[in-house]
Amino acid sequence: MKNNIAIIGGGNLGQAIGSGLLSQGFSAKKLTITRHKTELLSKFKTLGVHVTSNNAEAVKEADVIIIAVKPYKIESVLKEIQPEVKKEHLLISVVSDYSIKEINAHLTSSPTVFRAMPNTASSVNESMTCIASNNAKTKDETVVKSIFDALGTTIRIDESLMDAATVLGACGVAYVLRFIRGMIQGGIEIGFDAKTATDIATQTVKGASELLLQQGNHPEAEIDKVTTPKGCTIAGLNEMEHGGFSSALIKGIKTSYDNISD
């Protein structure tokens, strides 16, 4: 991995990336995180991370630049850091709905540019990160992959699928959490206290995911293992489907995609 990393934008995602890197042994002294209100990054400063509100200064000292600002801020940030961005820099944008072509239009030095879409599970090293670049060298892709592999799992996709990756991988965290919340609420209704219901629901979701990840089966194959004739599982599943469970989820994903693609 290249030496110094600057995360431009220490919001939720920027902090999640920073926390993930540090938890995997990346040196705090080689990490810079920027934010207008630097006091909100005090926990990183305590750990030895360089914290600043000066984006240009952060870029000047970095080998790898990770832009993690809100979409409406990226153009002003690119204009601010442009004088300090060199051809040798590796620039990674985790900003949704802003293409590599648009990024390059604001830079004169032609650095290698990647787009990456991690999610907030970066902070616990369980992110699914999709990365894309138009003409990066293998060595640069290796560097980018090493950064995000420290945060979870990384896959390479075509940039044309980056909006879809945002919806399924990043927005998807919220969908899954809402499902877990529903399980907890149902658990409380049938007799558990909130903490016990939370423990059961979260471990059950984790276990279901591991079944698919480790065994590579289709979800329906695992569902068949727990649905017996006239049993309570199939009765509950059918009731959920009568209520539009799968359809609502698919429609929600499609609506998010239509919104980000507008």
Task: Offer a few descriptive terms.
pyrroline-5-carboxylate reductase activity, ProC C-terminal domain-like fold, alpha/beta, single chain, eight-stranded mixed sheet, cytoplasm, Rossmann fold, proline biosynthesis, 51% helix, 11 helices
Description:
InterPro entries: 6-PGluconate_DH-like_C_sf, NAD(P)-bd_dom_sf, P5C_Rdtase_cat_N, P5CR_dimer, Pyrroline-COOH_reductase. This protein is of the alpha/beta class. It has two domains: 5-157, Rossmann fold; 165-261, ProC C-terminal domain-like fold (Orthogonal Bundle), CATH 1.10.3730. It has helices spanning 12-23, 42-46, 55-60, 74-81, 100-104, 138-149, 162-189, 194-215, 219-225, 232-242, 245-261, and strands at residues 5-8, 31-34, 50-52, 64-67, 90-93, 112-117, 127-132, 152-156. Strand 1, helix 1 (12-23) and strand 2 (31-34) form a beta-alpha-beta unit. The longest helix has 28 residues, at 162-189. The mean pLDDT is 94.
Q: What's the gist of this structure?
A:
With 262 residues, the protein is an alpha/beta fold.
Distance between the termini: 36 Å
Radius of gyration, whole Å: 21 Å
Helix content: 40-55%
Poorly predicted ranges: none
Q: How large a portion of the residues is in β-strands, by DSSP E?
A: 5-15%
CATH top level label of the largest domain = Alpha Beta
Mean pLDDT: 94
Largest sheet: 8 strands, mixed
CATH homologous superfamily annotation of the largest domain:
NAD(P)-binding Rossmann-like Domain
Total of helices: 11
Structural class: alpha/beta
CATH architecture of the largest domain: 3-Layer(aba) Sandwich
Lateral arrangement of strands in the main beta sheet: 3-2-1-4-5-6-7-8
The best one-word shape is elongated
Order of helices and strands: EHEHEHEHEHEEHEHHHHH
The CATH topology of the largest domain is given as Rossmann fold
Give me the count of strands. 8
What count of structural domains?
Answer: 2
Subcellular location: Cytoplasm
Domain Pyrroline-5-carboxylate reductase catalytic N-terminal: 5-95
Function: Catalyzes the reduction of 1-pyrroline-5-carboxylate (PCA) to L-proline.
EC number: 1.5.1.2
